[in-house]
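Submission checklist for the structure archive. All mandatory fields must be present; incomplete records are returned to the submitter.

[x] Identifier: Arylsulfatase K
[x] Organism: Scytalopus superciliaris
[x] Residue count: 531
[x] Sequence attached
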Amino acid sequence: MWGGEPLGRAGLALLFMAAGAGARPRPAALGGQPRSNVVLVVCDSLDGRLTFFPGNQTVDLPFINFMKRYGTVFLNAYTNSPICCPSRAAMWSGLFTHLTESWNNFKGLDPDYVTWMDLMEKHGYHTQKFGKLDYTSGHHSVSNRVEAWTRDVHFLLRQEGRPMVNLTGDRKRVRVMEADWQNTDKAVSWIKEEAVNLSQPFVLYLGLNLPHPYPSPYAGENFGSSTFLTSPYWLEQVTYEAIKIPKWSSLSEMHPVDYYSSYTKNCTGKFTREEVRNIRAFYYAMCAETDAMLGEIISALEGTGLLRKTVVMFTADHGELAMEHRQFYKMSMYEGSSHVPLLVMGPGVKEQQEIPNVVSLVDIYPTMLDIARIPVPQNLSGFSLIPLLCEKAESEVSLRGPRPSWVLSEFHGCNVNSSVYMLRTGKWKYITYSDGCSVLPQLFDLTADPEELTNVAIKFPVIVHSLDKTLRSIVNYPKVSSSVQEYNKQQFISWKQSLGQNYSSVIANLRWHQDWLKEQKRYENAIDKWL
């Protein structure tokens, strides 16, 4: 830390000067030199559109800008599942969600699953992890999993507190998300004290909770996370005039799955423009605090002379809707939720490069192996980013042929009453549900309609047919949806049996307790009918 505060303007200027004076990575071929170190910083819930124009006009993110100046930004990077654990399971395994079977926040990879980091360690890398991992099974609240299991039950219950803002401290309050700062400090100390003395290459992972919203204890005993919390220090990094107030469809015009999501997220009530603007501003301020932690890592690498030997990557598990489409949180295929940041800088990586190709988090696994010069397994869903980053011929790197022109994302968890599949290719985003018949699909032309307000599926049946055919060639999605339904039912039955006499009181007091307790018998009957 520079004087106990995050790097200010002066610190940033020094960093740019040092980078300009030859301390920055020289574009060397990743193959010819000693193997590079790798640092991966993964935050939680950062909307990828904030890393390039016009989204970057709303908030000052100096270290993301530093990475763009001396590296590459991906303009179309996506999560493979817009929720914490399934997304991370995809990133650590290199496999799509229907292959990891990480159906919800409770079900991830087995603890002994061989990740890219395990392989790098086996091939001579020193490995170090700090902060949030969340890719193995068994985490998150009971509410979270029961809500996911019961999404096919015919009832509608609010599962979250109403989204709200909370201003804390004064203009001197920099460290709002204390746990993240502690993990950042640990990573910085490790770089300065350990990494600098290593004789072997290293890979360092830092997982941050920000800018995920904070818990909302005001919502009662079992509460979700619907509070956007920051201090005046960070709020001053936000340009209020640039904040766009999203357009909303009327409740009656919403897609049925969107309506379910909006209702369960407690967003169907009335919100003033001021409330929506504040939620978005506070969210952007939380992104600015996240950026400062990334800055601490880059500065530590620079200060120890390691920056020019290290590939630095920054991404997130998913985005945040921040009241777009009348929702907050993620669990949606709309851009705010599914589009993630992805920036890379380091030896051999082109500077000031913007890559339009669609990529996704499963690509991180083969990319890590490529950097470490480890043969890439043939069964991965992802493709190495190295050919795009370094302008190498694809054939030099991949034995699997060219990277596909699409990415896949899928969602099977809570706050959505159907399995959802998204195929993103060219200007199109195709979203289909369940078995492909029982719920209307959506098609958006992101060039003409970047805010995804007009579903043109009925207007372009030939495109829908073609994209659906491509999707079915990747995943037999009606079959997957059916097996998720079966899994949900079996899990719920065994959970119910494990509670015995306590079942009624336990289920009544989950996050939906405020609605449930009004008509307890009715909701229990709905579950019995489903079972």
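[x] Structure attached
Curator remark: The chain has a mean pLDDT of 92. The domain at 37-389 is CATH 3.40.720.10 (Alkaline Phosphatase, subunit A).
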